[in-house]
Specification:
7 helices; about 180 residues
Length: about 180
């Protein structure tokens, strides 16, 4: 029993490090608009949609802090913005958007990505005030952030659509069948 728990934790650690490598490599290797795909947000939004637990947020904290070492923005801005957005998405899916349909998944991921970038812009603005160096936000940057939100939301929706075929928990017939047996 104890060995099984250790193997599970080592597997999660290795998968987390693989996700870090995949995310950073994706951003470096591919050109825009493909590089705008936020793999970490896709994985954790899918985990939140599939099984909303706080444990996913703790794992995201580790992954995002390690990724933060390789970003050019000041340390902590991106990870704080992403963790805040994931917490908001978790709250939205638990309290407001309780239905797990394709449209809800798309709009939740779109809202989460937009919230993530709004928090990031606000934190960058405050950092520029503290550091006393001007930061300008052009329309190209806003368009890039919106493209990132649309690409990430669309990709998560496609992954949800494909996984709803194979994962019994995501199908509405499963909910109907379990309510009939009770």
């Amino acid at each position: 029993m104890y060995l099984k728990n250790i193997i599970k934790k080592i597997t999660i650690f290795l998968l987390a490090n693989f996700l870090i490598i995949l995310h950073l490599s994706w951003r470096i290797i591919f050109h825009q608009p493909t590089s705008l795909l936020n793999i970490i947000m896709i994985v954790f939004l899918w985990l939140i949609v599939f099984n909303p637990r706080q444990r996913h947020i703790f794992l995201a904290t580790y992954i995002l802090l390690v990724c933060e070492l390789f970003y050019t923005s000041p340390f902590g801005l991106e990870s704080f913005a992403q963790i805040s957005a994931l917490l908001i998405a978790n709250w939205l899916l638990l309290n407001i958007f309780t239905n797990r349909s394709l449209i809800i998944v798309f709009f939740t991921s779109l809202i989460t990505m937009i919230i993530y970038r709004i928090i990031y812009i606000i934190l960058t603005y405050f950092d520029s005030l503290i550091q006393n160096h001007p930061t300008t936000f052009s329309s190209i940057l806003i368009k890039t952030f919106l493209n990132e939100a649309l690409i990430t939301a669309g990709t998560l929706s496609m992954i949800y659509l494909i996984s709803s075929i194979f994962v019994k928990r995501l199908r509405p017939e499963y909910i109907f069948e379990t309510s009939q047996t009770i």
